[in-house]
Amino acid sequence: MTINWYPGHIAKAERELKEKLSLVDVVVEIIDARMPVSSKYVGIEKLIGSKPHVIVMNKSDLADLTESKKWKTFFGKNARILLSSANSNKDISSIISAVIDAGKETIAKLTAKGLLPRPVRVMIVGLPNVGKSSIINKLIGKKKAKTGAKAGITRQQQWVRINPRVELLDTPGIIPMKLENQDAAYKLAMANSVGEATYDVVEVAKVLISLLSDKYPQITMNYYNIERQEDLTLENIAKARNLLVLGGEVDINRCAALVLSDFRHGKIGKITLDTLYEND
After folding, report:
1. pLDDT of 213 higher than 80
2. Which of 67, 96, 245, 259 could cross-link with 272 by S-S, CB 3.0 to 4.6 Å?
3. pTM > 0.85: yes or no
């Protein structure tokens, strides 16, 4: 099964993003801490050129902290990198400070020309459902940017004032035109970052279980009450959760939906699916 998703409004947003990059001083990229590479915008460095780049690893409260620290060090070689949780406001000042620091050289150049200082202008980018709008809401202190659980729900661009020193241009989540890396595509489906109509829930859940069996077997088996001598499979999870249909057969579709939901909401445990050595 190949996952390939690129709705028209996302394509339009990508074109508009390129046009409006000239208006901003700093680019903040939101990625999913559970899949730091898979959720990064392919070609972001080429797209933004020399503009300062801040990376926010969101949903870090759902990720494996040990792995997140490794990824933070890795990405920190080329960009300012922060960990964030959409459910906490503790990191607001850190994000604002990183943006102001990233844009200070641009503002200094303006004042050197005799112009009055102005707020740093920033654009936030990220794939759908990485928590971009939730980060914006947290930064501006009210729900001005529309949020939702469905991929691609943020549609319109808007300027928002974070504080007197930072102005932010909100942009829709963007996704590459062609998901050539199917490993990444499957992980994005696991995180609900691509449209549900583009993938088979059972197939994606099977791949997720395979990854969990390899990377986090014990916590997954403990959560689903799978006996040590049994294999970690959708079938065995369905039996353990008594997800059966008439005749006693396991309800694979229902089980697959349950497993994906459990992962997305962090119920299984703190999990990171991208391993640094796989992508370094």
Report:
1. yes
2. 67
3. yes
